[in-house]
Amino acid sequence: MTQALINDTLISGSPEWLAAKRQESLKLFNDLNTPTENVEAWKYTQVDVDFGALRPHGKRDRVSGVEALPERVQKRLRSTDVGGYLVFDGPDVVYSTDLPADVAAKGVIFTDLKTAVEQHADKVQQYLYSVVPAEVPDDTTIAAPGTTPSKSPDPSEGKFSALNAALWTNGAFVYVPRGVEVELPLGSFRVMSEAGTYTATRTLVVAEENAQVTFIDEQDSDELPGTYAFGAVELVVKAGARVRYVSVQNWGKGVTHIQRQRGDVDRDATLNSLVVTMGGTLSRTEMQSYLRGQGSDSEMLALYFANEDQHFDHYTLQHHAAPHAHSDLLYKGVGDNQAVGVFSGMIKVDLGAQKTDAYQKHRTLMLSSEARNFSVPQLEINANDVRCSHGSTTGPVNAEQLFFLRSRGISKEQAEKMLVTAFLEDVLSRVPLKSVVKYIEGIIAEKVGAN
Hints:
Elements: H1 3-9, H2 16-31, H3 71-79, E1 84-89, E2 92-96, H4 101-104, E3 109-112, H5 113-119, H6 121-127, H7 158-167, E4 172-176, E5 186-192, E6 198-207, E7 212-221, E8 227-237, E9 242-250, E10 255-265, E11 270-277, E12 282-291, E13 297-306, E14 311-320, E15 326-335, E16 340-349, E17 357-366, E18 372-381, E19 387-396, H8 399-406, H9 412-428, H10 434-449
Organism: Deinococcus maricopensis (strain DSM 21211 / LMG 22137 / NRRL B-23946 / LB-34)
InterPro entries: Fe-S_cluster_assembly_SufBD, SUF_FeS_clus_asmbl_SufBD_core, SUF_FeS_clus_asmbl_SufBD_sf, SUF_FeS_clus_asmbl_SufD, SufBD_N
Family: Belongs to the iron-sulfur cluster assembly SufBD family.
């Protein structure tokens, strides 16, 4: 990655504070090594990137109407009920809908991040990089959003965060003032249309005290060999606030997807997250909740279906830094053909975080003897009055259930489809967004039908 690239494409158009941050992040990126199998957090996933050859996705112009968008985007916009939507093609917004007037009148801001830097600089500068910094700080020294964290670079995780911090071009920005509840979800639909390129996007969602909002983040594309999507998601959940974040990754074959999502959850606040991974050839998703405040709550759900030669890696952290906090993680996946699934999850309880209540469960259904799965659930407990549990199971389709269905005249293929759908359903049953659940069920049906 050359200094000229970031100077020419980003720094010249950035305000001074952002330009400085990009420069700092680029330097860190160049100083850090790409993670290898010798790094525990990346033991089962190797990302082969020629950073010097990375080529940014080409510019795209806005379209005049929804009918000019790709058919799959049109279908999603017609089938979902949202209060506002951004559609990105590569780095650019090509279509958007406005917030309802009554919502905007309450001070809610929903726009692309590039525009937010220009029009809402005070809010963006206060929170940008506060939850997902260029490097991952020592978890005991994370500062409150809006302040400067005391950072300690971690070479095992910082390379791609630094890359995104330096090179992000756009993304979504959501700001909900104190006490405001946004009833309809807000969302973005990101597509890529140029093979052999990369995009770097960043999402920033801020819910002030006692605010509520739901954000849906979808990614989709056709087959795009040699293409990379680098993402970062920052979720600021202030005291008493409630944020629901949904990520649906359905990139086409040939895409490498690397994204870190981190939520900072304050006193009596709640963060509900759902990560759905279905597409791309290699996907590495990190979902982390930092339970900063007493009485905070985090629900972390995920489902994935890897087939053919797909490699899906999920890395999670439930970090309890305050007493009387609760977290619940349920990740369920399916592996078929020669696919590889990786799950590494940590429950970390700090000294003084008494009365922690934390759960972690990961289950994988294997449809092929050639598929592989690596599961590493972990606990790090530094308090003596807690309730924490973790567990992981990996196994084939239940033979008795399969026999029961086949004895009633159902084919083996159809019986397996039914069992896979039922296996994943208990995750979806916990998501109160009917249009999103229906969309995900359609993707699952396509994946199962391909077997």
